[in-house]
Model the fold of this input.
Amino acid sequence: MKYLTEFRDGEVAQRIAREIRQITTKPWKIMEVCGGQTHSIIKNGIDQMLPPGLEMVHGPGCPVCVTPLELIDKALAIASQPGVMFCSFGDMLRVPGTECDLFQVKGRGGDVRVVYSPLDAVDLAVKNPDKQVVFFGVGFETTAPANAMSVHVAKRRGLKNFSMLVSHVLVPPAIEAIMSSPGNQVQAFLAAGHVCSVMGYWEYPPIADKYEIPIVVTGFEPLDLLDGIRRAVLQLEHGEHRVENAYERIVTYAGNLPAQKLLAEVFEITDRAWRGIGVIPRSGWRLSPAYRDFDAEERFQLSNIRTVESPLCRAGDVLRGVIKPAQCSAFGKECSPRHPLGATMVSSEGACAAYFNYGRFISADQLASAGAARA
Done:
């Protein structure tokens, strides 16, 4: 099928990898922002095709993973209340809170529903006027338009029993936070193509200029990622720092203007806490004043939420790119997909889940040593 086989050609992948090895003369660290890209890199062994010294750093681009523990605990508290129908995408149900997860709330009798669209939650609110229907709105810019539309439709229908628990985060402020952090070693970024399909990439040139870093917009298939890495290395080797679009079949500079208009109407920029990272100024969305009546946090007025992270879990260091998942002492032992300590082991885009599912049980240093020996 076009775009499934066309961008998975093994011979072409090897050719691009050889070109990357030929042009790389120095050690470089490139961060892929998106968790979907991380999974593709690990699944297809792309990091192992690269020359020694060229390291892919896994970024915080998994929305499930960066949702703060306090908000997870608020979701659990809301879902546990009588008369509430709590709706979420399936990847949130096993994210551990301080004491349990949404699956356990469901097992105790809570009305927790998996939906495939936020508009499904709006329909449930229409069909169940005696229930308070809450949708857990988690994501980067990619899922935001659909979530915004659900609130827009709920307001248009005059629904009083629908609300959204909002945990939307934004990519550009996260890149700035990473580049401004003490000890940062990231020298280039692969920007997430699906985010840029919505927002365009007009926000990135000032960041590239400010921090003198290459930023390459790319997709998720092996050839997309290898091409993005090749372009980033070429810029690094030539001392350049500009934004390139390596995903032109999907992404334009301006992005989806009708979607951006809807987002500007329904949401407003706010400071947002990121799990494992902390508060990043102006890095998230919350409902705008015109839609504030649909804010679940304000509707339920929760208090006395006390969060406790697992002392064994180093998901925060993974999300910041400080360590690789297998360098956490709990990885594959106390922490596994069946018994996760953190969201990075739960999410379909989590780096820890990628390493576990694809058998990466050795450290990045060992991988680098193995690569050097092969060379």
